[in-house]
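I hope you will forgive my troubling you with a question about protein structure. I set the record out below, with my sincere thanks for your time.
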Amino acid sequence: MPGPRATQNSRLATDQEAPGEAGSTPEQEGERRSTTESFIERLRVASFWTAIVLPIAYLPILAISSDGTRTGLFVALLAVHLVALYAGHAHELER
């Protein structure tokens, strides 16, 4: 059975805040938020341009005979294209 000192130490350990939680400063939160927003925007840009360029790859696949492997490749490429369209649809080009 733990003594009173062990119970007190376990209470202290659970009362301490984990790094990055309520003890973070507003500046750290702003950096974290801007880093996340920057990553999301880069992902949108990459997805947008992937969705624009990816149809070029359809032509060689459609021109080659349609055996099972190439059909599977075409379906996989189409799925990637749909994901890229969904992820990149919010990207706005600067004018």
